[in-house]
Amino acid sequence: MAWLPDHFTVYVAFNFIILASFNVASTAPGGSSAHVLSLLQPYDFLYYSGVRAYFGQEWAKAAEQLEKSIVTKESLLRVRRQCHADCVAAGREALYKLDSEEGSLWDLWALDWVQQKAECMRFCIGRHVTPAGQLAVSSDIEYEFGTRNPYNFLQVTYYKLEKLQRAASAAHTYFVANPSHLEMRNNIEKYRRMEGVTEEAFHDREIENEKHWVLYDAAVQYEASSDWVQAAEKWKTCVNETLRQTEECRVQCEMTPQRLPEDRGVDSVDGVFEKAAALSLSLLSCRQSCVSQVATRPGRISAQEDYLPTQLEHLHIAQFKAGDISGAVQTLRSLLLFYPSDKDSLDNLQLYYDTLGGDTESQGTQPAQEIVRYISRSLQEKKLLYFGRENFDFSFTDPDLWTPEDVVPESLRETWRAEKEKMNEKIKEGEQQEEVDDSGFFAGGPVPRKGVTITMDDEILNGTNRVVLDGVMTEKECDRILQLATAAASAGDGYRGRRSPHTPHETFEGLTVLRAVKLAQDGMVNQSDARLLHELGERVRVLLHSYFRSPSGLFISFTHLVCRNAIAGDQEGRLDLSHPVHVDNCLLEPDTKQCWKEPPAFIHRDLSAILYLNDNFDGGELIFTNRDAKTVTARVKPSCGRLVGFSSGPVNPHGVTAVTSGRRCSLALWFTKQKLYRDMEREEAEALWAADGQSVVKKDEEEAGGSATAARNARSQAPQEKSRGRGRVTGGKDEL
């Protein structure tokens, strides 16, 4: 529809003034008291009621009101979304007349359309929400729900009510958005050890609003395993979900009550057009901010830059490698709408054209229409916002790096260029910043075991706090543990029965110390071999504690005997890794080179180790990389008795190359400085031996500054905890 510029300006003014009047002063139509009671109540009132009940120790009432506040807020958003959809067509007949009416009547038709739409929205909202429930909530309430604080209260409330499953769920949901909350982290670990708490309890109740991040992570995982068909499917779904979440956010900007300019203390704004301009700019700014909101993970402060373009870049590469060249062309042309002169993208487009050969129809594939609309709408909004910044001193922060310069008015371009250059310099500084290991370990200490030699150190391994020690095991000991693995390891142990957690080209077997001890008690494996498996963990702990000069105690956190078997006849053309590059105690994002120390990462791990048992296989080398997960900085070839140790943090991304033939076995170990996270399964195994009258010297506890008795006493002081052992999460082990 072609609109006259002057007409459009006045239309925008009337549009926002009347919609604002609806949002600020909307009231529900009259009705019976029963009808009013069935309407949605103010969720802030319900929340405050729950908090008051909490501090009054009325636990049942607190749980009821807090849960109602969460449900009511989600219902309110759903009502707004539905009313927005229902009122799209309201007044459309009057809107169509704007093109044809001359003289002064066009503005009346604009008012007619705006009023009909406002009336539709007011009536729709009024049918579902009380008048009080339609009012804007305070910024304090927005912050409370934005940080998921209701779940903080619910966690304690359900614990007091002895509803441990719900308490664990609330704790996990809160912790996802507050990963640095140490008390909640400790609470979660306690819940894991409580009787009656299952793994299903630890799910994010807000995951419905974070589906795009779930899809993003899944797509990255499929890429890492070179499953390009699945990767392309996940990236495409991720793009669509990101667009949907962005649109949902934009709808809420329009439907959420807005304050008029006079409410903002803008005394100089008197005219209807000035007020309309100020309000419309606020609405457009809210819509633009949805880009950052959707691109920010829960618990993060900053958004991921170029979130949508990054997905498109991954998608076209995955489509190309999956053989969908036509789809790759469309996606790449969509990406070029963001960065039209990007050389790499243009080179890739030419490559795709060359691959298609004479297929002119596929070469002429146009960008996806949803991306075309996204770009067109965003650019128009940016033009209006930069105009407002230039002429009304409106404050606007552009959320996008791809904004073209011609959108910015001439008078602002110098400032805009300076801001952009400053941002680019900051990004470059971050990329060039030298890695610093804050683990507290310092490589180069003595090796307190005869026959053990240092084969590779930090300098040879091109990193920080890395070491390779040889001679840690004898050939005979390697053979004994290999026989133990063959006799007792169950396929997929630690991964819920899946053959391999990372690649379809290998099978996976694993054995824990506790399982080995129980099998030995049943006479299924040799008792001395099970004891050797246990002793190797302590042997490695002593060596690494000394070499890395740990100033504090070091506890074994987990031990897992792992064997990877190449599937015969399924290795041709294989490009994936046996284990994708990762970091042991944080979530690595290769694109941003960030590593987030939050669940589901094992954030308590401080030191990692692999003790190899054999070398009669092909592939299976340990690789260290930079944070981009691509640049290999060192390789370690396995052999019997070879130990690799390294700090578990972001200075040491690592992975395992494909095992293309044979069987690779190793003992994976992790260590922690925090006694709370010591391996409880290991202690249970020791308790089983003690019950049989077999003594076990627990050097790890004694050297760390506490006896076994002291440890038991410390655990007995935990807040009313019903312990049944570790209750380890068996679905999340990431083996080396």
Give a concise summary.
InterPro entries: Leprecan_dom, Oxoglu/Fe-dep_dioxygenase_dom, P3H, Pro_4_hyd_alph, Pro_4_hyd_alph_FE2OG_OXY, TPR-like_helical_dom_sf. The protein has 736 residues and is of the alpha+beta class. It contains 26 helices and 15 strands.
What can you see in these coordinates?
This protein is of the alpha+beta class and 736 residues long. The protein has 3 domains: 43-204, no CATH class; 210-260 and 273-424, no CATH class; 470-688, q2cbj1_9rhob like domain (Jelly Rolls), CATH 2.60.120.620. Helix content is 50%, strand content 11%. It has 26 helices and 15 strands. The strands form 3 sheets. Strands 1, 2, 3, 4, 5, 9, 10, 13 and 15 form a 9-stranded antiparallel sheet that branches. The longest helix is centred in the first third of the chain and has 28 residues, at 59-86. It is globular, with a radius of gyration of 31 Å. The model is unreliable at 1-36, 263-267, 491-498 and 697-736 (pLDDT under 50). Residues 691-736 are annotated as: Disordered. InterPro entries: Leprecan_dom, Oxoglu/Fe-dep_dioxygenase_dom, P3H, Pro_4_hyd_alph, Pro_4_hyd_alph_FE2OG_OXY, TPR-like_helical_dom_sf. Keywords: Dioxygenase, Endoplasmic reticulum, Glycoprotein, Iron, Metal-binding, Oxidoreductase, Repeat, Signal, TPR repeat, Vitamin C. Its cofactor is L-ascorbate; Fe cation. GO terms for molecular function: iron ion binding; L-ascorbic acid binding; procollagen-proline 3-dioxygenase activity.
